[in-house]
Amino acid sequence: MDTPSVDIQNIRAKYNNSQEPYLLEENLPTTDPFSLFDTWFRDVASQSDLTFEEINAVSLSTVGKDLRPSSRMVLLKAYTPTGFSFFTNYTSRKGHQLEENPNAAMLFYWPKVNRQVRVEGVVEKLPDEMAVAYWNSRPLASRIGSKSSLQSEVVPNRQFLESKKAELTDLAEREGSHAITKPTAWGGFHLIPRYFEFWQGQSDRLHDRIVFERDMDIWLLKRLSP
Ligand SMILES: Cc1cc2nc3c(=O)[nH]c(=O)nc-3n(C[C@H](O)[C@H](O)[C@H](O)COP(=O)(O)O)c2cc1C
């Protein structure tokens, strides 16, 4: 039997904001967007099974010198009062684009809590010591996987990657896992925001949108129409 087609036009999930029904200016924890991000991240973390749900998966958009935007998911590995960090290969497509143009945007979407967060700003490379420290904390299999791949390069077939992995697995067995060192081109980026938008879905479609925009050293807060 054929699988019935999905009636896309009539998909309408109900939003149930039992925790915090509306995003009201007077209830915001503070006028600091990092602290509101922290509150929202903790909220979704407390309601998720972190073994299966990658609440730190975030869409990253970049635009290189050809001015064509491209997006992909990355895993957020840290957020601090200055910005948002992730790790990747500096010679990947995104790496080249960020070299050409450091402006980038991140998009978090947490359907469980009907919330979206947009972050826009400029990236800087993280110091190599941080990349080494994080690389060394990763499981051996992840390190072998990353090191087997020249990210974003064309490869002839899957077997090509499997043989790289087999070579590195042999090396680790012979010399120990410390032999799987961080590739020079593998490192971190830190996105320093100038714009945040916190979106909370409402079933009546009058969604809340609160923007924080940096003006020199202060954050200006405004509400946008949904
Ligand atoms: C949930 C998820 C998490 C990912 N995390 C990362 C990551 O942290 N770093 C990374 O380089 N790629 C990550 N990827 C792979 C990227 O989406 C992408 O395929 C890869 O970075 C190459 O992108 P580029 O060719 O645009 O540079 C992830 C993919 C998914 C689906």
Structure explained in plain terms:
Pathway: Cofactor metabolism; pyridoxal 5'-phosphate salvage; pyridoxal 5'-phosphate from pyridoxamine 5'-phosphate: step 1/1; Cofactor metabolism; pyridoxal 5'-phosphate salvage; pyridoxal 5'-phosphate from pyridoxine 5'-phosphate: step 1/1. Its EC number is 1.4.3.5. This is pyridoxal 5'-phosphate synthase. Belongs to the pyridoxamine 5'-phosphate oxidase family. There is one protein chain. This protein is of the alpha+beta class and 226 residues long. The protein has a single domain (16-136, 184-223), classed as Pnp Oxidase, Chain A, CATH 2.30.110. Helices cover 26% and strands 31% of the residues. It contains five helices and nine strands, in the order H-E-E-E-E-H-E-E-H-H-H-E-E-E. The protein has helices at 33-46, 93-100, 128-137, 140-147, 158-175, and strands at 57-63, 69-75, 78-79, 84-89, 103-110, 115-125, 186-200, 208-215, 218-223. Strands 1, 2, 3, 4, 5, 6, 7, 8 and 9 form a nine-stranded antiparallel sheet that branches. Strand 8 (208-215) and strand 9 form a beta hairpin. The mean pLDDT is 94. The structure holds flavin mononucleotide. Flavin mononucleotide (FMN) binds at residues 54, 57, 70, 72-75, 86-89, 92-94, 151-152.
